[in-house]
Amino acid sequence: MELSDLLGQTSEWLKGTGDSSDIVVSSRIRLARNLEKIPFSHWANEKQKKQILDIIKPVVINHELMKEHLFCIIDELDEVDKNLLLERHLVSKEHIQPGGSKAVVIKNNETLSIMINEEDHLRMQAIKSGFNLQGAWDIVKVIDEDLSGKLEYAFSNNWGYLTACPTNTGTGMRASVMLHLPSLVMTNQINKVLQAIAKLSLAVRGFYGEGSDATGNFFQVSNQITLGYSEDEIIDSLSRVIKQIISQEKQSRINQLNNQRKMLEDKIWRAYGVLSNAKVISSSETIDLLSNLRLGSDLDIVNGINSRFINELFIIIQPAHIQKVAGKKLNSAQRDEKRAEIIKDKLKK
Amino acid sequence: MELSDLLGQTSEWLKGTGDSSDIVVSSRIRLARNLEKIPFSHWANEKQKKQILDIIKPVVINHELMKEHLFCIIDELDEVDKNLLLERHLVSKEHIQPGGSKAVVIKNNETLSIMINEEDHLRMQAIKSGFNLQGAWDIVKVIDEDLSGKLEYAFSNNWGYLTACPTNTGTGMRASVMLHLPSLVMTNQINKVLQAIAKLSLAVRGFYGEGSDATGNFFQVSNQITLGYSEDEIIDSLSRVIKQIISQEKQSRINQLNNQRKMLEDKIWRAYGVLSNAKVISSSETIDLLSNLRLGSDLDIVNGINSRFINELFIIIQPAHIQKVAGKKLNSAQRDEKRAEIIKDKLKK
After folding, report:
1. Least CB-packed of A28, A169, A349, B217 within 10 Å?
2. CB contact (8 A) between residue A262 and residue B279
């Protein structure tokens, strides 16, 4: 598979299927693992990092789940391609910073990606569409178990899996769910919800993970504690909270439909009107408007536009994707024009 | 003619025809006249006002130009109908305030309307589409001359026509032109233009005349001096200024097309997008967006929508018109919904 092939497909996790996919965009499980007797990537010298890559790469790319895959050395990619991977949530922001022997292996359908020489030697993540942490865990568990038979993981009987940052030690697991909560935002209930989440030792992040703001009413909720609980316990306790948030967003949508239907319809149709007519549009405005359109589709206020279509738009309107489609580097003003053109074309269909 | 028949027609002055109709919506000439030996309307008692009406009415409605007309006693109209006349620029704000024996005679095609017992006994106005002060003057001159043969006008050889307010004494003429100047507004040149106008002893008002703000980039420019110049001189000097403003707006539009075309297209198409999709919209937002759409039509950025259609929309989206179309009284929120519905329907066609 070539990197540019990604453009022609919809990531599996964007398909808009799965439980509660009107509210939960995707579910993700990430495991951090390190090899024994080699320094963590940040402390390793170039030779050691090369060694890490050489040990891990063959084991990963030869795994059954990775039969069809894309392998990239990060430093060999240009800026646009690096950001393309970031925009598709296949690598972290940190991972695309320069640094020898960083690599990523991506399963063709984008449900599974494995970063090599990120903060930890191995970062494995599985993403599923909708509310399906178990589904993501089932994938990542298989490859983790198989890899553990072929690689010597740094593991302590006292602490569990050892990681570069102590916040990952233990299970090395980060389970996260991307939620779309427009109604809780619109009705000013979101802060109460976020405060409650914080009290439960869960973290809330934006659309692009760590360090990103909540944009387009998307919130990524994940566990903060990795130590002292089993993987199943972590998934279970996160799931219980997510179920509550889902029911609050659902109830809020019902209330709005009952009490503010016109206002809601207005907001949603105006978003459609601007998206399908603008000639210049920024990505942040686009994301806000697409958020409204997604709500409109979920509430059957706008018909003929499904979640998959909108989820896909969220990805392809981002800067690197725009430039990939245009086939050349574009400055910000040029991207804003091209973005408007792409959205218009897509909505016309 | 019935008052409700107005709804089914486009006022002649909204037809979007005539010179420079891309910038000049309409041209208007208004004459103030009073009868000899009867106090001005504000000083007259009810009996005298009745007398004024009784003297003027038959002369006006029997005039050749008023063969087909609508006659209304203001106090006999309900609030919606009064405002309907105001929104169509057929009466002044002051004229629809309660007060016995106020009346208006309107020529069927709305080019000529004569208020009786406004501030002056007689206020005659002719409106023409586009830049055509002479055309309006030709109409109003005819009826004024004919009426002067049948009514005894209050006239002083020293001062000319006597009027309730000294600012109208002399010719009693107010010549005004409604300009649409979106490009001068967008490019922040409008204040310089307005300051220059003020220095020339001209007045600038908004869409609804005296006391109204400039809305939707409409500016009504009129003479302030009525004394010491002939009617032709007043028209001539106003026309010269208007021609300059027209050429400034034209030049500004050309500059914008050359240097900011995308921004302009974006603004115009977004206006179209919102107007054709909103479910709730206020009249002030509508006027602003229609202003952009009018510019888009004038610059051939939006095709298939002509000035007449947009001019008409400006009128029918106003509160009294909305209620007339709905056939019942509506509160502000209900009007905002109905307005969105009407605009959407019109734009669909």
Report:
1. A349
2. yes
Q: What chain A residue is nearest to B271 in terms of C-alpha separation?
A: A274
- The verdict on pTM exceeding 0.80 is yes
Contacting residues of A for B256, CB less than 8 Å apart: none
**What are the chain B neighbours of A289 within 8 Å (beta carbons)?**
none
| Closest Cβ–Cβ partner in A262, A279, A337 for B337 | A262
CA distance B314 to A321: 42
Q: Do the beta carbons of residue B219 and residue B206 sit within 8 Å?
A: yes
User: Which three-class secondary structure state does DSSP give residue A194?
Assistant: helix
Mean pLDDT by 10 residues, chain B (349 residues): 85 85 95 95 93 97 95 95 94 91 95 96 96 97 96 94 93 96 95 90 78 78 91 95 97 97 97 97 94 95 88 92 94 96 91
Average pLDDT value for chain B: 93
Would you call B269 and A277 a contact, using CB atoms and an 8 Å cutoff?
Answer: yes
CA atoms of A212 and A223, how far apart (whole Å):
17
Strands (E) across chain A are located at 24-33, 69-73, 103-107, 112-116, 122-129, 155-156, 160-161, 173-180, 202-205, 218-223
Q: Going by DSSP bridges, is the β-strand pair A122-129/A112-116 parallel, antiparallel, or unpaired?
A: antiparallel
Of B262, B273, B280, the CB nearest to A280: B262
